[in-house]
Amino acid sequence: MGALKVAVLISGRGSNLQALIDAFGPQVADSPVQIVLVLSNRPAAQGLERAAKAGLKTEIVDHKAFASREDFDVAMDREIRAAGAELVVLAGFMRLLSEGFVNAWRDRMINIHPALLPAFPGLDTHRRALDAGVKLHGCTVHFVRHETDTGPVIAQAAVPVLPGDDEAALAARVLWAEHRLYPLALRLIAEGKVRVEGERAIVDDGAAADAVLINPPLP
Ligand code: GRF
Q1: 95 and 127, same structural domain?
Q2: Does 112 sit in the ligand 1 pocket, CB within 6 Å?
């Protein structure tokens, strides 16, 4: 079986893209994943430099150049298909997607969200987690549905919220987990270990009965 061809969509910093490059980039022998395209809606996205440095194909589809969301999505769709991608990987992509685009890539488009969904969909997740006083926070990789930050959950990572945390400290702890979770989830998909049943993703090898993170910890 050949490597799974993916297009990574970004809007900015691209640290998750970097984690995917480190795990599956051209330098990796026998990678189960091939990044065939890095597409940004923002010409200045730092992630574009990371992609170019790794020798990956990049495209800019600037949303500002399109009259409607639908037109923008059609242009993106064209680039993604031209590159031969089989899966779309959203990595800090900050545009809402039209229903047509989401449906066209149903169960073939994933996103990483910086919270333990269904808690804290949307923006400012770390601020809201701190305000809510939760003791565990984290990140989620999920298939994309039309409603923002919904869809079958593939994998999650939990981190503790510590008493002295501010938004930056908590964000850094979650981001560290994101950089480990996204390559793991993508590998599971590439290896054919993830399937969607109804609105749930079933993951072979996905269960660790002894995995427990308790915060505050047991004495
Ligand atoms: C990450 O926190 C991701 O969960 C969210 O947007 C951020 C992107 O960061 N969707 P980066 O561009 O990957 O560094």
Answers
A1: no
A2: yes
Active site residue 126: no
Does residue 14 have its Cβ closer than 6 Å to ligand 1?
yes
8: phi then psi, degrees, rounded to nearest 5:
-105, 125
pTM score, whole prediction = 0.97
Q: What number does the ligand 1 atom closest to the CA of 13 have?
A: 12
Give the pLDDT confidence of 158-203 residue by residue, as tens digits: 999 999 999 999 999 999 999 999 999 999 999 999 999 999 999 9
Of 57, 88, 105, the residue that ends a domain is 105
Look up the domain containing 56 and give its range.
1-105
Q: Computed over its alpha carbons, how large is the radius of gyration of the chain?
A: 17
Q: Is 31 in the pocket of ligand 1 (CB under 6 A)?
A: no
Residues 79 and 125 in one domain: no
* Residue 219 CA to ligand 1 centre (angstroms): 35
> What CATH number has the domain bearing residue 158?
3.40.50.170
77 contacts 58 by C-beta, under 8 angstroms:
no
Flag whether 216 is in a domain.
Answer: no
Measured by CA distance, the residue closest to atom 9 of ligand 1 is 92
* Residue 5, beta-bridge partner list: 34
User: Are 119 and 85 in the same domain?
Assistant: no
Contact 157, 115 (CB under 8 A): no
- Tens of pLDDT, residue by residue over 1-47, are 699 999 999 999 999 999 999 999 999 999 999 999 999 999 999 99
